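User: Here's a chain of 363 residues. Predict its fold as tokens.
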Amino acid sequence: MSKLGDLGARLHRGEVGYDFIGNRKLWYGLSILITITAIVALAVRGLNMGIEFQGGAVFTTPKTDVSVSQAQEYAEEASGHDAIVQGLGNGSLRIQVGGLDTGKSDQVRAELAKDLNVPENKIAAELVGPSWGEQIANKAWTGLGVFMILVVIYLAIAFEWRMAAAALVALIHDITITVGIYSLVGFEVTVGTVIGLLTILGYSLYDTVVVFDSLKEQTKGITKQTRWTFSDMANRSINGTLVRSINTTVVALLPVAGLLFIGGGVLGAGMLNDISLSLFVGLAAGAYSSIFIATPLVADLKEREPAMQALRKRVLAKRAAAASKGEPLDADGNADGAGFEEEAETAVVGQRGRRGRAPERRG
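Assistant: Prediction complete.
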């Protein structure tokens, strides 16, 4: 067995582990800081909206020796607007200029042909109206709202409302961070970006649901024992699924990283940047939020219940009694390190023994 596999097995059995729940205030603070940074970036810098949302023209040139920076200067001089120029893999250029109508577009194409020293009929021009982008954005917002509602309803039915609320907070956290990163790096927001944002929602929920399912199974009958609190079990659930979450996240991030850094960075494929950045940031944020945000929030909400508060008092009292007797304690503070599964099994065996005991004879 590999070292990672052995670590995963030991984490699952509870032999080793990290106190994620105990350090939750640190994760909350870090997430709040990142979220505030993203919101400030959006407020100050805004988003670099593509022509699909603001309207304009896209010119695709044949192969040329003119550099990207020089072509950008030519395009801005010819149009009087800011231009975005991207080099394509075959040596051609993709020039985007916002706010152009049909007449102005023909004039800009003619001047670009002269400046770039290419035939005018070889430059492909495409006009995009802002209304089309607005329709796409409205449909995306509608889809996002419907998705959120359905997720909350499903999780509330399959698990409970506390888990649904925590998952919703994690989703909002992931989307805010992803959009904030777009604002900070200045990447253009296109239809591909919207598709990427909607795609990461499912990935964001995946690890969260895995941890929630493990937590649901492990906390059945939790109030019938006095060894672990709900937070202890939440911590064990995170540790038990940690290696799985890491493996699935890394496997998902590798091809997306290839699209972002090789396809977008090296080959200069602009459209790949739009969708791959949202996927890359969203996948990483989703894996983070499932471990450091969603599950700790569930633990905080559950610990407010009277039954869980009473359980915590019994568990802490038992641990204090064991400590006063000088008994060795494990990482969870228990005297023997055993789980409440063993207590349940002992109770079942005792019941079976009482049922199977022969009736006492009377003289």
